[in-house]
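Same chain as my last thread, 658 residues:
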Amino acid sequence: MRNTLMNEADKDAWVIGDSWRGMMQITEIRHYLQPMLTYKLLCENSNHGFIISENHSWQTLTSNGIDFGEKLQVAFQQLESLNPSLQDVFTIFNFDRIKDDLSLYKVADSVLNRQSYNRELYDDPSPLTGTVTQYLEDLLEAIISREGAHGGEGSSPKSITALLPRLLDKTNGSVCDYASGLNGFLIEANKYAQLNHGEVRLFGQEINAQTRALGIMNLIIHGMYPEIADVKLGNTITAPQWKDEEGHLMKFDGILTSPPFAVSNWGYEEAEKDVYGRFRYGLPSRAYGDMAFVLHSVASLKKDGKAVIVVPHGVLQRGASEAKIRSNLIQEGLIEAVIGLPSNLFIGTGIPVAVLIINKNKPDAMRDRILFINAEEGYRKAMRNQNELRDSDIEAIVSAYRNHSHIDGYSRSVPVSEISTNDWSLLPLRYFEKAEVETKIGRTNMNRKKYEQSDLPKITLGEIAEVDRGLNPTKDDSVDADATHYLVNLVDVQEGKIVPNELKGITLSPKRARDYELEPGDLLLSSRGTTLKMTVVTSDDLKDKPMVFSQNFLRVRVSDPKRYNPYFIKAFLESPVGQYYLQAYQRGTTVTVLSHKDVASISLPLLPIEEQGEIVRRILEAEKQYEETLIRARHSYVQSYRESYELMAISDTFDLMD
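reply #2:
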């Protein structure tokens, strides 16, 4: 019967979505579908250890659609009553509230009952990887993919869940995920152990009650709950649930986790009074909870344990308290590797992420070193705004990590002494001589070491210019037609020029405006977002009204225009070398930002003003020729089409609008 079930998941997901459209939000479909299909699975198989009431079998429930939602709710209550380990797993989703019993029943009868979930009827009856499980995995994944920006909540991308267990490489012992969501990591950790003829015991904690319920159902589908895996409800930082008999944190052989990114209300006040010894390396920033989860991992590992954690780039490079924590972890020899991954792997966010590997039993060869892997370019496009790791990408990462390989531009073992000179930054791009950079002239392979060690005289931007942050308007800064200034925002800079049409006015006091007013020759550099924008302010830009620049820009104002040409600085920052440094210095979790201090630290060639002027002249001439060539090509293109339409005798039926 294998072929009658496989390859049906995507079609079934569409039918379910269409049947329940208007009855519930698209993000709620999982909440009602998964209890139904999990209960059907339990009723049609007997080797799971749960007690099912004969009066509430799936066959009896679906014999007709009368009061179907109410019958399901009663059946789930009975299930939880007979099986205490299922308390609040099925009944947390209230089927009584569903008024459209017919639509609910239609999915059960025409979709779920179209095929049997009896595992023994198919080629592969395994609960962990068998035919029925694969179908249910594909069906739920198809539902999640249709949820849009919120579809990734509680789950990590399939390629990430496949990668991390291979990096952890635990085939025996205990493994925990303290932000377990739908339990994808725990399931894959079990698959990895069984594939390698091992056996692991799995533990999870999830803060959201509904997500925990769905996650436990996922474990049931894979034949893992509660014998192999268990998940508790609670906040990992403020109320850790896995403790030993003495009330200390339970220690694990391995940790696999992808904590929530950039959580602000993570429990700073509770951390100040922490009784579990988790913050002896430092107290994380009040604004970002990422590092708190890293420190919880360190405290929850056995003396030879390993943690593999998905983190945003902010964890790797934020300053102040987090830099201190990084330095302590690094100097204690706890960080074994950092793996930079492609952006757009997660549903709903395009931010780049990395894998941080904590190892309390690092190999001797790595005692005073950290392995960096730059895997940002290894992916394929899964859909329009979604990337995924290919099997070959995963294999390359795992191989480089296990062998501590030195691969030019991809993986490198870096001494701690070098990391200390980079403010304890763990951003992989900082530690590779070569990096691929997208520039005006195309994709380039930039050799940082060759530039920095060259005999070319250099000077930092901060030595020749002031680099300042922009204005963050307050409620006292009124916006009106009679404003004193124009405010330049990101949207107002297009193709290297300030576009005056949409500039918004703002009224500022002379004192407040003084620090943010623009002058001819000022270079504006966008400081927020992944798309870098630059423009040099001209006298024409300022002819109507004075301008100030927003907090989304940095202003570079040269101290001596007779020695330093702002257009030359712009040309350098747009070059492969400049773009490398700007991209390497981008920080942030939800939105990338550039620090004025980092920009001021960039070294650029120290050339005579005459040579700077000649370089600028050549670039401006090249841009002019390029634009003129495009205009000519466009004119020839349009003319050829018009002549073709004349030959068709249809040219008098339309007018060209632009």
